[in-house]
Amino acid sequence: MATDRYQSPLSERYASKEMQYIFSPDMKFRTWRRLWIALAETEQALGLPITDEQIAELKAHQDDINYDVAKEREKLVRHDVMSHVYAYGVQCPLAKGIIHLGATSCYVGDNTDIIIMKTALELVRSKLVNVIAELAGFADRYKDLPTLAFTHFQPAQPTTVGKRATLWMQEFLMDLDDLNYVLGSLKLLGSKGTTGTQASFLELFGGDYDKVAQLDPMIAEKMGFAGCYPVSGQTYSRKVDTRVVNVLAGIAASAHKFSNDIRLLQHLKEVEEPFEKNQIGSSAMAYKRNPMRSERIASLSRYVMVDALNPAITSAVQWFERTLDDSANKRLSIAEGFLAVDGILDLCMNVVDGLVVYPKVIEKRLRSELPFMATENIMMDAVKAGGDRQELHERIRQLSMEAGRNVKEKGLDNNLLELIAADESFGLSLEQLQQTMDPSRYTGCASWQVERFLRETVEPALQPYKDQLGMKAEILV
After folding, report:
1. Catalytic residue list contains 254
2. Which of 7, 32, 33 is nearest to 20 (CA)?
3. Per-residue pLDDT tens for 335-365?
4. What's the maximum distance between 2 C-alpha atoms anywhere in the chain?
5. Which of 79, 185, 282, 327 is catalytic?
6. Bridge partners of 151?
């Protein structure tokens, strides 16, 4: 590792080797060469004088990129595509004259960008469905475990630990829907020429519109796409990048919400992210178990959500058929958005896979608040025994305030049940009141909702990806 220059933390610390390869020079320039081969084969099939020997020569050197030759040539001509055309020609003297025939730089540049984004989205999808699957297992294990729910981070009616996990899952499932929609809509630029009119190809094919019409579909099929965008300027619309990175930002937002909840639960000591045997939580406070992974999810997620502005603004300011103020921004915003989301999903997999639940802590906190939540049931029982609903409501309100003051001002335990038992208007003994304190009585349909959600929503959503499940993620730092 070079220690005298900047290294991107996305590569050094966060993103997987698989995602790093997708945005590597090897992936980029090997794809350029595949596109040049596809163009040559298509032009040959449509009648241009290109020989089998020339195509065979191109294929023989498809993967062994002579980077040194291209780098030296770029110093001279200041053009990356023409430098690689030259370098490929050095290796392929027979085919030298037909490489990039009729094409503009965006033929390789833009088509490769689409291919790379498609490949990267497929990797993101694999990791996303594994996060959902891990959460599904967690939700199923804890679907019946009552826990205190919060609104405004204030105690509210109980839910279950598993039901809370379905809320995280549902957002990731929305992201999966968005990802699949955008992935299914991706098309190649094709070979449109310098302003999108295909004028150079109309010239090459002697004015034969039918042959020009066949060019893009044939190239798309060779590259594994259903088709090409029907019209373009020199580039594919930069709105495509906006749609792709918005999907990444959506995943980041879902992951951020999940990580926030885990951090808050870890503060409450109810649920804890994995903590390794030799992990150090603080350089000063040796006892600390900081939620480092969840904090990193939040940190990277904020970067991706803000990164979505880059392609949106770039798309908005493109002039006519093309400008070049997109290029430098795209190199950063697209690649680093994907690398960051890759790291985020690895962290999510790692956290969910190792989540530790502390039922005793959960029960203790729930029981400390349960008397307040049970007051509706207590009031109904008292009414059935002959009490006046309005009078009982007022008495419960007063006693609840008194119990709240005991907890907040005096630091005492919640004694609401004792106060109610001592009030003759309720006609209920402390023993009778305590029998109402089963937490499962107050979780409503939570367990049933989890079972139904997993059966009717999650399992069908994961079914197409069952062969991709079981992925495990290791975090680098």
Report:
1. no
2. 7
3. 999 999 999 999 999 999 999 999 999 999 9
4. 104
5. 282
6. 154
